[in-house]
Amino acid sequence: MSRRTARPRRPSTAPAAEVTAASPCPCGLRAPYAECCGRFHAGAAAPTCEALMRSRYTAFVVRDAAYLLRTWHPDHRPDVLDLDPGQRWLGLEILETSEGSAFHTTGTVTFRAHYSSGGRRDSLHEKSRFVRHEGAWVYESAVFAD
User: Fold this and answer.
1) Average pLDDT of each block of 10 consecutive residues along the chain (146 residues)?
2) Would you say 46 and 137 are in contact if contact means Cβ atoms under 8 Å apart?
């Protein structure tokens, strides 16, 4: 999630809230972080590509670069991931999911992730491709929709 698409909105000056185990999960599902994406960050395998997508978005929110690298296909993974400390993730919309269940080896998730950076709101619209690698879902590549 690094490409930005221009979408003018009013800037937000509210500070980013700290995510705790009991906080609502940033991915948008109605569960506490520890029971939702936090368990994947702690080492559990995501059962679907949508669950992995949501947990990767949440990893951007909590700035867990190690998780992002660990869940990136090794053939496409960067050596280092520098997360922008000024970027604040505001919300995730899952727009479409194709395949990606326990019975598939590939899947895609189309989403829009909202963020603010430098006092300006924007969003990232992407179709991400996921594959199974050594039995686990990993992020492989993306096509930017905007």
Assistant:
1) 36 56 96 98 97 98 97 96 94 97 96 96 97 97 83
2) yes
